[in-house]
Amino acid sequence: MAPTKEKAAAVPKGEKTVKKSDGTKAKKPLSDGVTRFMKRKKNAHKKLFSIKNGKVRSEKPKVAISVVKKIGGAKNGGERTVILKKNKSYLPTKSIVKKRTGKRCFRNHKRNLRKTLKKGKILILLAGRQKGKRVVLLKALKSGLLLVTGPFAVNSCPLRRISQNYVIATKTRVNLKSYKVPKHINDTYFRRQPKKKNSRAERDIFAEKVEKYVPSEQRKTDQKKIDEAVLKAIQKHKESKIVLRYLKSMFSLRTNQFPHRMQF
């Protein structure tokens, strides 16, 4: 038989085996792709021994905050520490005092419109004097309200503003991309200016006259111009006759009809 190598003697329990090193200090990774030390820890260890730009930072001279002054008198203690820079007389309760928003901050808020509300869409009004009528959307104003029109010649609905909460957007749309609404038609355009009352003139207390709203001449001319542009766009539509009939008809619900189940 071939000679066999003698086995090493077994190490008794409680004693640790010491492996002979080859002189190298390279440490093996714990597993595939996992190093023994984190990259962040290695970089932090290197920074301890490195000096930026090879320059040593010079220590800033310490500035005295207080000064010791001598005071005369037997019962005054002889000395007193005085702060050079005095503290403020008024100290706020909070470390960071936030600026309060203005009283009229709502007008500066960002207005978000629904994706379905686009220029030229036919809407159904759900509130106000003209509720139930179908109108054409012209644009969204700065206040977040929608500018709509009937047109007036079709269903006698004039230029008016309405909130998007009281509107149902339909799938039918008129092409008004090329048309631009005049700049002067904005939120201030719809404000009613109250008439000045003469306090000196004699008037009857019991006879109260209710003033009716009468549209101005400018309002009438603007209404005609916008209606002409909207009617031209409706005539260019493939189903212009059906769209006109749709605008003239009123919206209403019958028994067993639910708006959330309907398609417009």
Topology overview:
Layout: H1 39-49, E1 66-70, E2 79-83, E3 121-125, E4 134-140, E5 146-149, H2 152-155, E6 160-162, E7 167-173, H3 217-236, H4 240-248
Antiparallel strand pairs: 1-2, 3-4, 3-7, 4-5, 5-6
Notable traits:
264 residues; alpha+beta; two-stranded antiparallel ribbon; 7 strands
Brief digest:
Helix content is 17%, strand content 14%.
The assigned structural class equals: alpha+beta
Compute the number of helices.
4
Shape: flat
Radius of gyration: 43 Å
Point out poorly predicted stretches: none
Q: What oligomeric state is this? A: single chain
Order of helices and strands: HEEEEEHEEHH
Helix content: 10-25%
Report how far the terminal alpha carbons are from each other: 100 Å
Strand % is 5-15%
Strand neighbour order, sheet with most strands: 6-5-4-3-7
Sheet with most strands: 5 strands, antiparallel
